[in-house]
Amino acid sequence: MAAKGTVTVLVSAVVCAAVVFGAVKWEDSVALPTSAGQMVDGVHHFTINEFNYRFVPTHMVWHVGEKVSLTIMNRSQSQPPIAHQFSLGRGLETRNNGFPGQPLAVGWKHDFFDNVPVTIDGQTSPIPSFSVSLEGGQKFHFTFVVPNKPGKWDYGCFLQTGQHFMNGMRGHVTILPAQGA
Amino acid sequence: MATAELQAQGRGDVAEKSSFHIGMVFPMVRATLWGFIGYYAAAWITAAIMGQVLFDPAPVLFGYLGGLTGWVMGSGIWEGWIRRGFGGAEAPVLTGVDRYFRFSPDSKATATRYVVFNIISFFFAGMAAMAIRVELLTPDSTSWWMSEIHYNMTFGIHGLMMLLSVVSSVIVAGAGYYLLPLMLGVRNVVFPKLLGLSWWLVPPAVVATFMSPLVGGFQTGWWGYPPLAQNSGTGIILYGLAAATLLTSSVLGAINIIGTMVYMRARGMSLGRVPIFIWGLCAAAILLTIYAPATYTGVMMDMSDLVLGTHFYTGATGHPVGYMDQFWWLFHPEVYVFVLPAFAVWLEILSAASSRPLFGRNWAIAGLLGVVLVAAFVGVHHYFTAVSPARFPIFMTLTETVSVPTGFVYLSALGTMWGGRLRINAAVLLVLMGMINFLVGGLTGIFNADVPADLQLHNTYWVVGHFHYTMLGTVIFTWLAALYWWFPKVTGRMINEFWGKFHAWWFFIFFNCTFFPFFIMGIEGMNRRVAVYMPYLQPINDFSSISSFLLGAGFLIPLANLFFSWRNGKKAPENPWRAKTLEWHTASPTPYKVFPEGMEPVVVHRFDDYSEGSPDPVAWDKTGAGESR
What we know:
CATH architecture of the largest domain in chain B: Up-down Bundle
Number of strands of chain A: 13
Distance between the termini of chain B: 18 Å
Order of helices and strands of chain A: HEEEEEEEEEEEEHE
Number of helices of chain B: 21
Shape of chain A: globular
Number of helices of chain A: 2
Largest sheet of chain A: 7 strands, mixed
Number of domains of chain A: 2
Structural class of chain B: mainly alpha
Number of strands of chain B: 2
Largest interface: A-B, 34 and 44 residues
Oligomer: heterodimer
């Protein structure tokens, strides 16, 4: 009786570890986009998922002069789903909301895509203050050549008076000098 | 046969003192593992089929259902109950230490498991309270400690867990399920397996709530109001399922309370002789049976909005106020589910401790049932500021009516002590302190009910102070009193009176230092549920926070007291408090078989007659002897 109980517990422990490990691994590698992206025909493809209130992945590495293709997907879990934004830039702009030391996040002082030609549906042109806002379930795709703006750039969602950003809906891109340069 | 003779008599064939070995815990370990397997397997399969991730609503919903099933099956319910339904054999009922670690139809084991789990739950929910008070030490967002988001999750978890896994069951389940059959003079409750199941529903709900931040938490506090619920993280799914599970668990207990009281009383136990504590339980059980289904149905409809895309409460055709209606149907009367059994514990203890009959006993019962009568009407005050001024007087009147039946109970307690010689031990001291706290909580409630005051005070710390006085100050004080009072019954040992009284004073002083400032903060304009407040409120918040740390640390004293007294306490006499109720007529600690085969108690006199030379209220007779009379 006791021996049978021990066997049950041991087998259950092994199965439990396998299921938990398997589920988490599957989510990381299959259900969610990876931080590394994929290189296809010389274009670096990244997928960014937007959830309430986080991005996956939260970190990417680009190289100057590299052709990057971004697919932004809003996978808001709420029902009805809510809108999210992808805005890439540097230097947080804030606004006082009355509470001392508690400013609201408004946007970036310097937009990454200023003077950067962006290709959307085959049309290429620079778009001032470029950012992507999507309703729940929508998907948006664009490509561009990484300009010579090396360093750390941040992305975030500033919807609902910046609350998404302040809730932690943010990530960053590290831009390195051209490969082989 | 006399009681003393009966207490000394052995119980024959039942193994009372099987010694503990580690294998006895295996059912609980197995249940835990199966629970996690069930959760992750179901969530994984759902996510894979629907193209989602593990923290999306549908995988969390099915994961929870899988986890609950795995845990319950692992607990021994399959062998001990369900297997027979499929033509298999039912596992034998275990009577030794084993029964505490697996599904068991023994109400005493179920109640003991409740007490232990209540303490665990209270500890973690209490740590959440400490985290809240650390955040409030400074008026800014204290980002080194936690973000506003985590702050919101923390007070939501604190509220839900304290209400639904601590105060809802500490007295009703921990004391109630233990004493229900004993006080009524029967061997077990009317549906022992349902009662056994009720405990096994609690831990998965509690674990799910505490782990909800892993899937995004919930920002709504313990209310879960849509439409905020829809936008505040997938943890809301676990919130809703946990609330529904815990309420179901309460209802399983409530059915047992009413059923046992109505159908299973000992011979001679007329309703007029039923102990007041059982009347308190009965009042709580009536409320739960009537109103709990309305509320968990409402929560399930919200789950349906979140997962299936229905629009009961959201979207163009949805009606968010409908959720509030369904929510408060139970959750206002729920506060009386918490507090009525606590009142009844006061009366039970005070009557025995002052050796006096219960003053105005029938009025006290009328008070308990009177609160049941008005409970749901009173709940409309949760919409106080949301309705037209024409309805204010109605809301005010309905709310204030509750003070009338409550007054009956309070006066009964005062009248019982009046002129008596109260023997003050730690339990009685805690009851008296609980009464004083309830007085403050009750009087401040009048301001909440009063229209001009409420328009100013609603949604402020005043309200938070008010309900902490009634919940923590009354129910938790009374819980500790009940633990101390019935400790000799359950363990056969006495608690340490010095540390019991020392802790009572510690608790009383720092409780008041923590929560009385809440009233002042509320008047000064501090909103509830905020991580950030105006700097002029900092000194009073700091005073309250520091007091709360001392209050929280003080809980280690009763924890240590209970533990050491259980292991090494002084051996208790059979009836240390000279109480007359039936539970003290069996041996202590209560044997598995409460009284010997073939014997049963016959109630021949009321239980609260302490006059000189009054007859023993209980006689023992052969089972079945009454049939021929």
